[in-house]
Write a structure and sequence with these properties.
Layout lengths: L1 E3 L1 H14 L7 H15 L2 E4 L9 E9 L1 H4 L8 H13 L5 E4 L9 H9 L3 E2 L1 E2 L12 H4 L7 E4 L5 E4 L4 H14 L3 E5 L3 E2 H7 L1 E2 L1 H13 L9 H9 L2 E16 L2 E10 L7 E7 L1 E7 L2 E5 L3 E6 L16 E7 L8 H7 L13 H4 L6
Parallel strand pairs: 2-5, 3-4
Antiparallel strand pairs: 1-2, 3-9, 3-10, 6-11, 7-8, 7-9, 12-13, 12-18, 13-14, 14-15, 15-16, 17-18
Helix pairs in contact: 1-2, 1-9, 2-5
Length: 364
C-alpha cells in the first residue's frame, strides 16, 4: 500500500504511454484529468492485488472510443459517481476499489481520477499489460470473465447498462452507443471479485508504468551507456528501426483510429524504409518488406532524442522516431490469447511469431 500523488502521476502517465503501444490516448490529457482530481481531493491509495480481499468488488474504469475525440470533449464532473451508483446498485454491495483496464496515457489516468473523486483505493493490476482497441481483449476474457453488466455514461448525463451474451457482443453494442454519444464515453466493465482479479489480472502494471516513466525521464543521466542503450536496457526493448516520418495516413472509423505511418530510414537505417500499421494501437512493424513485430507484442514509437513515447494521434510529418518492440504478457501468447488479439484477428495475413524470434534472438 502506498500513495499516488502528482509526482507519481507524472511518471505513471509517461510509462503507461509507452506500454500503450501507440494507443490508450494522449498522456497529456489523461495526466491533466488525474492531477486535477488529486489536487482537489487528495492522493490515491494504491493497493497490491494481494491486499484486496477475495470477495471484494473491484471495478475497472476506462474511456471507450477514439482517443483523439477525448481532446475535444473531456470527462465531466459526474460520470464516475454515475458509474459507481449503477454498478454498486446492480451488485447490491459497494465497490471496494477501482482499477485500470489497460495501460495507456488516458486509461491509466482515468481510474486514478475516479478513485480520487470517490475516495476509493486503486488496485495495481489491469487486464492487458498494454493497450488494445476492443473491450473483449482482456485477460479476464481468457479466464471466462464477463464484461457485463457494463455501465456507460457520457458527459451530457446519458447512461445505460448492458447485459450481453458474449464479450464480443458487448464490444459491438457499446461501440454503437459510443458513436451515438459523440465518439467517446466513460465506462465501467468486468466488475470482479478480488480472487478472480488475482488469478487473471496483470499484476503490478501501475508500478511498472511508474518505474518506466521515471527511467525515461532520467535516461540521459545513465553513466557508461548512451541514452539509446540505456533506454533499450531499461525497457528490455528490441530496436526495430529509426526513421523520419514521411507520411501518416489515418482515419476515424467505427470509433477507432485507423492508419499507417511511413518511415524513411536515418542513421544506420539510412536508405531503408519501414511502416507501422495501427488500429488505435500499433499492430505491425514492417522493415524493408519484412514483418519484424506483430500484435500482441508491443510496438512503440519513441522520440529519438527524448525517448518519450509518441502515440498514434501525435504522429506528424518530419518527426524522428525509433520503433521499439517489447514482449507482451505471457498469457497473450497462448492460443486463447492469440484468438483474441493475434495478428489474424486484425486481418494481418501472418501467424504470430514471438518478437524475439522475428528479431533472431537478439536486441539491437
Amino acid at each position: 500500500m502506498r500513495k499516488i500523488g502528482v509526482s507519481e502521476i507524472e511518471d505513471i502517465a509517461l510509462g503507461a504511454a509507452l506500454l500503450g503501444a501507440g494507443g490508450g490516448g494522449d498522456p497529456y490529457i489523461g495526466r491533466l484529468v488525474a492531477i486535477g482530481a488529486v489536487q482537489k481531493y487528495g492522493p490515491v491509495t494504491l493497493l497490491s492485488p494481494e491486499e484486496v480481499p477475495d470477495d471484494a468488488l473491484c471495478v475497472p474504469i476506462a474511456m471507450m472510443g477514439a482517443p483523439t475525440i477525448l481532446g475535444e470533449k473531456a470527462v465531466g464532473d459526474n460520470e464516475y459517481q454515475t458509474l459507481y451508483d449503477t454498478v454498486s446498485t446492480f451488485y447490491g454491495k459497494p465497490i471496494y476499489a477501482f482499477m485500470p483496464i489497460e495501460a495507456g496515457g488516458v486509461n491509466s489516468m482515468l481510474p486514478i481520477a475516479a478513485a480520487a473523486r470517490l475516495g476509493l483505493p486503486l488496485v495495481d493490476c489491469d487486464g492487458m499489460g498494454r493497450a488494445f482497441p476492443e473491450l473483449q481483449m482482456v485477460t479476464f476474457t481468457i479466464g471466462g470473465g464477463s464484461a457485463t453488466p457494463m455501465a456507460l455514461v457520457d458527459e451530457k448525463g446519458n447512461s445505460s447498462i448492458f447485459r450481453t451474451i458474449t464479450n464480443k457482443w458487448t464490444e459491438e453494442l457499446a461501440r454503437a452507443v459510443t458513436m451515438a454519444c459523440g465518439g467517446s464515453v466513460s465506462v465501467s466493465l468486468y466488475a470482479m471479485e478480488g480472487a478472480f482479479m488475482k488469478e487473471y489480472g496483470v499484476h503490478g502494471i501501475v508500478t511498472r508504468s511508474q518505474t518506466l516513466g521515471s527511467a525515461i525521464r532520467r535516461v540521459k543521466e545513465t553513466d557508461g551507456q548512451s541514452p539509446e542503450e540505456a533506454f533499450l536496457s531499461i525497457t528490455e526493448g528490441y530496436k526495430l528501426f529509426k526513421g523520419k516520418i514521411g507520411d501518416v495516413l489515418r482515419e476515424v472509423r467505427g470509433g477507432f483510429n485507423f492508419g499507417k505511418v511511413l518511415l524513411e530510414g536515418i542513421a544506420e537505417y539510412k536508405g531503408q524504409s519501414a511502416y507501422v500499421e495501427f488500429q488505435n494501437e500499433n499492430l505491425t512493424a514492417t522493415v524493408e518488406g519484412e514483418i519484424l513485430a506483430t500484435t500482441p507484442d508491443l510496438i512503440c514509437l519513441v522520440d529519438t532524442d527524448t525517448f518519450q513515447p509518441v502515440p498514434t494521434d501525435a504522429l506528424k510529418y518530419g518527426k524522428r522516431v525509433m520503433v521499439v518492440g517489447l514482449k507482451c504478457f505471457p498469457l497473450w501468447r497462448t492460443q486463447a490469447g492469440l484468438d483474441l488479439v493475434g495478428p489474424r484477428y486484425f486481418g494481418v495475413d501472418t501467424d504470430y511469431i514471438p518478437l524475439e524470434e522475428r528479431c533472431k534472438g537478439g536486441r539491437a
